[in-house]
Amino acid sequence: xxxxxxxxxxxxxxxxxxxxxxxxxxxxxxxxxxxxxxxxxxxxxxxxxxxxxxxxxxxxxxxxxxxxxxxxxxxxxxxxxxxxxxxxxxxxxxxxxxxxxxxxxxxxxxxxxxxxxxxxxxxxxxxxxxxxxxxxxxxxxxxxxxxxxxxxxxxxxxxxxxxxxxxxxxxxxxxxxxxxxxxxxxxxxxxxxxxxxxxxxxxxxxxxxxxxxxxxxxxxxxxxxxxxxxxxxxxxxxxxxxxxxxxxxxxxxxxxxxxxxxxxxxxxxxxxxxxxxxxxxxxxxxxxxxxxxxxxxxxxxxxxxxxxxxxxxxxxxxxxxxxxxxxxxxxxx
Length: 333
Description:
Number of strands: 9
Number of domains: 2
Structural class: alpha/beta
Order of helices and strands: HEHEHEEEHEEEHEHHHHHHHHHHH
Largest sheet: 5 strands, parallel
Strand content: 5-15%
Oligomer: single chain
Number of helices: 16
């Protein structure tokens, strides 16, 4: 499933108050932990992130303390005692079997030792797969059978929408639209490689005027720099957005076409600029480029609260509305 589909599934579990234990599988850097944290925040739930691979068995079960001639287990302070929230066990299958066994008690019985998880809490976990070359242990079958399992994969459209909503640099988004295979590309024996998490870090480096190789690796970093050299040759994007695009032709180079379509979509942050971009692209480019620009425009307008205004404006421009409808229909057939 895509990250967006995972988020919707988690939201549905909360809405329906289904407190089944959840295991989320996926490659490193795809955003598993972020999705869980964002989902909990959206519903106003407390969020406790336990990195099990960094804990010892006594950290989770607690310490034995003598009491009236017997041992009593004092649970750790980080486990919740009241309220509602998500107890998230990250890197579950990176924890050694002994710790996974203790976690199994918490997942199965919602208790460990003398500790009882409050009724209002969800237990969710995440881990990497063996094929991701992560240092993971085999999950015992009894433990695996206590979960419902979701497997998430990198997804360019979902990352694009997130990137625009989160305000990542438009040149990062444009480059990934041009080179989508570099969204997530693990590289053996290289500490830095492309992933959604790495590109988010790269955006911060790029805005600070720094090379992004430290985040995504040398090869992707060099490709990005070559792309940016072309990006600087772009015609005046704001000229088109301000309604002065008459006589401006659509570029011939594919890389510049991607760059321009993405730039128009991400910078059209008012209704007049959005309509100017759509009209110009409809007049100058093929339907596929109109669709590409529109797909980057929608998250921008959603961020600015302008979706309703665009729908109303398109109703007053039947030719543009029909062209856009045909372009989107062709994309999905």
